[in-house]
Amino acid sequence: MDAIVKMLEKHQPFFEKISRNIYLQAIKDGFLGCMPIVLTSSIFLLIATLPGVVGITLPQPLIDWCNKLYNFTMGVMGIMVAGTTAKNFTASMNRRMPAGKVLNDGSTMVAAQCSMLLLAVTQFTTKLDGSELSVFDCTSMGTRGLFSAYIAAFITVWVYKFCVSRDLTIKLPKEVPGAIAQNFRDIIPFGGAVIICGIIDVVVRNLMGVPFSELLIKLLSPLFTAAETYPGLILIQAATAFFWFIGVHGPSIVQPGIDPIRLANQAENLQVLLAGGHPAHSLTFNMSLVGEFGGTGATFIVPLLLILFMKSKQLKAVGKASIVPVAFAVNEPLLFGAPMILNPYMLIPFVAAGCVNVSVAKFFIDNVGMNGFSFVVPWATPAPIGIFITTNFQLIALVFVAIIILLDAIIYLPFLKAYDKLLCDQEAERAAELGLESDGAATIAASTSAPAVEQATASVEPTAAATDSKPVADQPEPVVKASAKKDVDGLKVLVLCAGAGTSAMLANAIKEGAAQTGENIASSAGAYGQHTAIMDQYDVIVLAPQVRSYYNDMKADTDRLGIKLLAPRGKEYIDLTRDPAGAIKWLRENLD
């Protein structure tokens, strides 16, 4: 098992390189930017539909109003994603542009939205009350148009890069105000992107008889069908957990490619449910509640197992500290505290538990009558509650939840017990070395848990990608006198993670520490990819461990803006979230 982990560590830079792929980043960050659309529209849909489940009849005008809000938000999801994806892709492309050449992200955003409409939307005329009207078919403006949105975004940004790099722009005299001159410089690349997508639309419609968005769905339908089989669901879940196990944020790699079909399937499930049928799609957006039950690795039950069945003080402490965050799908305290990442004892259960969960879910949907997930709920919703809601409050869903909790416990317990025995032996050895009785081992373990974990896992913290410039966390620690106190008055700190869950833990610790020490420090939490518009308002940016592989991309931006960038490793980060005063001290010591 140790040999397997060492082999994975050796290839970790390659997997981190995949996670930093600018296309995957743009898709992930573009979709993340539109998550308020998904969540807000779902609230209005729940208001319109769920009262009927318990026999409450709402006034029809209220139902119509809620449905209108849903349709005018979720119904234009594709257009919005085209814009946000182009904006994020532009930011990545600008880091690769020649000096003095910059793409206008506002212009690329609008151009991508126009191009997406050309690829996905059909315009036709009809008559109403004797008058001829021009009508848009809105079917592909929403989730069905996500593939067209991505294609439009990438084409647009590459056209802008081609034109700007070669000065194929309209130049005005220097006396013309900059904002006006920029509008003229964008005319040629804007027109080029729109024309190219317009030509693609004409060709596809004439050759295939369908809009481009339908062509992609038709061509990729065999893949989608395969993905919704047992092997397909297992492969998706195994890949997500595997990447996280080696320290690379798995959902960021796996989910961007399948999000369009997951959302489309969930929307189709909803239509079937509202029509009185049985929603049968299992590959849906909120299937993550099952496969990532409590977070990647299906760790919902693990903290309780640590508290009840482990003898090692280290694991009991981790269980107590992580039980609440894990309930809300923030399982980094467990992943880095136990640790589970790159821990050879945890590889099999970490990958297997989620795979078993999605297989049981498909069985329940296909054979037991449980509804496929229809309503979208936020990712941080406690999984048992989220599953109950999104299956339309079916009692069978509660039975399903109880079964997967039991199965996950059975999968994890033997491996946790084996790891617990190792830690207990190490605690006893350290106690003996210090000449203490065996009953003193717990005290020693509580204060020196880190070495025990390192011995058990060979290397439990993700390493940075093999690049020319190493992250600051990889450099030797600066020598700081205990009495040294750097000026942190008025400091503004932004903590970034994948989904603003883990980052909130450290941001809150910094706030508490500032209150305890009387420092004037403001801290905020955010999601990586949604930081570009606000990062210049901060003095320090901290990358959480799961986005640490983006260090070099972020460093280029922070250096340009004169912002200090910090990237603590896994266990160090988790320790800071639990030590508010220590978090303030850590900030002082790492300021230049």
The tally of helices reads 26
Q: What would the principal axes of the Cα set say about the shape?
A: globular
Query: Unreliable segments (pLDDT under 50, ≥5 consecutive)?
Result: 440-486
Q: What portion of residues is helical?
A: 55-70%
The biggest beta sheet reads:
4 strands, parallel
C-alpha termini separation: 42 Å
Number of strands: 6
* Percent of residues in beta strands: 5-15%
Main sheet: strand order: 4-3-5-6
Q: Please give the radius of gyration in angstroms.
A: 26 Å
Structural class: mainly alpha
Global mean pLDDT: 82
What does this protein structure show overall?
With 592 residues, the chain is mainly alpha-helical. It contains 26 helices and six strands. The protein has helices at 2-10, 12-19, 22-33, 35-49, 60-71, 77-94, 105-120, 146-165, 178-185, 187-208, 212-227, 230-245, 250-274, 288-291, 302-309, 313-327, 332-337, 347-368, 383-390, 395-433, 441-447, 449-457, 502-517, 551-561, 570-577, 580-590; strands at residues 122-128, 131-137, 491-497, 521-527, 540-543, 564-566. A four-stranded parallel beta sheet has the order 4-3-5-6, with helices on both faces. Strands 1-2 form a two-stranded antiparallel sheet. Helix 23 links the parallel strand 3 (491-497) and strand 4 (521-527).
